[in-house]
Amino acid sequence: MTRSSEPHEPIDPGNEAWALSTDQLLKKLNVNVQQGLSEAEFRQRNKKFGYNQLKKQKVRSWWSILYAQFKSIIIALLAAASVVAFLYGEWIEGWAILIVIMINTFIGFGTEMKAVRSMEALYKLGTVKTRVRRSGKIVLVNAADLVPGDIIIIEGGDIITADLRILSSSKLQADESALTGESLPVSKSADPVETKTVLAERNSMLYKGTAVTSGAGEALVVNTGLNTELGKISSLVEITEDERTPLEERLDKLGYKLIVATVVMTIIIVVVGILSGRSLFLMVEMGIALAVAAIPEGLPIVATISLARGLKVMADKNALVNRLSSVETLGATEVICTDKTGTLTENKLTVEGFHLYKRSITIKTTNGRGFYEKGKTLNPKKDEALMKALQIGVICNNASLYEKSEGGSGDPLEVALLFTGRIAELEIEDLLKKYPERKETAFDPHTKMMATWNELKKNRYRVHVKGAPGEVLLSSTTYLHNSEIKPLTEEVKDYFNDLNEELAGNGFRILALAERPSSDLQEEPYEMLCFIGLITFFDPPRKDVRMAIEQCRNAGIKVVMMTGDQAETARYIAGEVGLGDAQEQKIIHSLDLDNKPEEEQLKAHIFARINPKQKLDLIDLYQKNGYIVGMTGDGVNDAPALKKADIGIAMGERGTQVAREAADIVLTDDEFSTIVLAIKQGRVIFINIQKFVMYLISCNVSEIMVVGIASFIGMALPILPLQILFLNLVTDVFPALALGLGEGSEDIMERKPRSSKEGILNRSNWLFILFYGLLITGAVFGSFLWGIYMIGHEPTQAVTLSFLTLAFAQLWHVFNMRDPGSRIFKNEVTKNRWVWLALIFCTMLILSTLYIPELALVLKLTPLSFSEWKVVIVMSLIPLIVGQSYYILKGFSKRKEV
Fold this sequence. Notes:
Layout: H1 22-28, H2 39-49, H3 62-69, H4 73-87, H5 91-123, E1 129-134, E2 137-142, E3 151-155, E4 163-175, H6 177-180, E5 186-187, E6 205-206, E7 211-223, H7 229-236, H8 246-275, H9 280-294, H10 298-316, E8 319-321, H11 325-330, E9 335-338, E10 350-356, E11 359-364, E12 370-373, E13 376-378, H12 384-395, E14 400-401, E15 408-409, H13 412-423, H14 428-434, E16 437-444, E17 449-457, E18 460-467, H15 469-474, E19 476-481, E20 484-487, H16 490-505, E21 508-518, E22 529-538, H17 545-554, E23 558-562, H18 567-576, E24 587-589, H19 598-603, E25 606-608, H20 612-624, E26 629-633, H21 639-644, E27 647-651, H22 657-662, E28 665-667, H23 672-713, H24 721-740, H25 763-791, H26 795-812, H27 833-851, H28 853-859, H29 866-897
Parallel strand pairs: 9-23, 9-26, 19-22, 23-25, 24-25, 26-27, 27-28
Antiparallel strand pairs: 1-2, 1-3, 3-7, 4-5, 4-6, 4-7, 8-28, 10-11, 10-22, 11-12, 12-13, 14-15, 16-17, 17-18, 18-21, 19-20, 21-22
């Protein structure tokens, strides 16, 4: 077929692509179905039609991030304080507050800019790929690079990334609910339909945004980007909705509660101060400063940074997070439902042997490569029964082998069959030339079999079948014994059934092979079969899984295997990976599931021969009983369970696009240990956020208490409004940010999961905040009163002592954020390098307020003598010493109880 250099216009749905024949379409788009587009043709069409995108992801500009900083209630309060200062002629304080606004804005802009860019980089990691025939070769390309005329290779589980006209199909079905609202899968074929057929009934088309649920085929791209049906809908309605995570909502609720409490408390303090004779300006300014101090404005900034860093850490460890809301849920996960193949096992299948009637033939794929029977070398070309089994395995196959390596593309089981055929010098290309494939019945989860029709001569075919042993046996009426076909008696069936059970118990995956002659391509493939024998595959357990499951057990997380494999195979692998010993293993077969009481189902470790509906029911059962459930999956049939689970975890290497789209997290390495790492990071993120919230609020509570108590008892204020603003800017944000970047405690995976209903702060956390708020307040009053009564300072001079005591007490307070059970000098806080950097930086800033004359003038501070510094150091260390003493005593009492 000739091709012109200039591409044609894309087919618009108005041109009725669904009603045209495949030959008409190929001619119209000027493409050879066997070759596809060349690289030059792709570039021409890409230049003409653009990229296959609906809309580019919205990127936040730097100016919009900067503008967002001025929408904060904190900035509004500071601006009000600046206006009040100027109105009262306090020019220095007015300008000082404006500088505070600029500094606060700069910090907020810088940190949020970094966080937003980190998140945008993470979103770019997940790219949908599509199999395309280009220049006669099948290649994986980004969906955005599709152009009209591309030939797409389709398999069950694929997400459709452009509008396609089907060229060929085998049992092809698609879920079009996202486009048409039709809940059931729709059967598809290459046959054209009537011109006036409505969208939901255009069975010759596949549309962008839908999903292939089963079958296989090839299709032609007819529309891309905004020309697709989905593109037309998206161009009519543009809705931008920010994702609100449970964590953000909880932080907002906490913030609103603090604002209400602060406003009430501030009004009371201002009124009491005015009634006690203080100036109106001082008390209004103090009220605004207190409001700023009480509201932890660093919360959203630090929370964003902590989440972004946590997601980056997960991505670096091969866990790509699709939804922010899943991060919080991760830390509360109590049950992980996992499949077996590829997650608990290597998914590197090799054929162990062929098991014919009363014959076992083993295969070596490395040293001494070849076929062996009873220890002796066997030539497959001289063994009719073995050769039949090998041919069926190779020819009833959709995988492909690489030319110069043992690997291949496609189902690992089918790749293993092709590689075994290669050992016997059987190549799929040679067999298909000799016996051309005329039809395929794709694997069906219900029949658990697949079949191909291969032509022997004109109108004479051989049907090759492979599938689950039980189902293939039920469809067979004869069997092959050496080179003779005999009736399949109950005795022979029992032999193969017993053999199947024995092999499964030894950890093998098993397929059955069968064939039959046929003269009609429309015949039912799974009837009157001749049973050939069994093939055993071995998929070794992953080496890291046993340790990962042990970590889950220590962390209070139950691991449950839900597999479509046989019970004995599941039991063997469970034992190998440490999923309960032989006595503990509670296994339930899918056939018995409905008859088991809920209590017994909840106690089971293994569910064998499980189907997608039963997975959903089991997840629902766990959730009804209050468990937070994580679910792993890779196939189309896993998608409903992945969505149903609290945390859906898809396999990135072998998982289908449907599964990846439905999941909250995608594992780029398919390893179970990565799930454990992700859960650990989820716990770390939540605890880090909890710690910096406690730190911020306890520091702010101490500031409120200092001013509130002084106002109520009518004494001079130990700290002034601008000093509060300075401390709130310095000693709050940087140490809190450092806590948010911590790597977590060593024993974090030895604790039970927290309750998903638990808020950011619980009752004990609030008691912690009150306790340390009182300690810091007491230290501040102690240094202030020491300066007045022991040194003889005026209150205006003693304020320097109380300011520095408050500043350093808040800095040292960061060490009280360690876990009570951790060691005093070596814990998650002391090992956090960001904490030390924050302390050094903040100390330099605090000292600058004394020794930079302009700052000292603005904040009304005076240099201290050596004896006065001793007072500051001793008093500021009291909250730390008391806190650490409490931890030591608490740890000692626990050890004594044990």
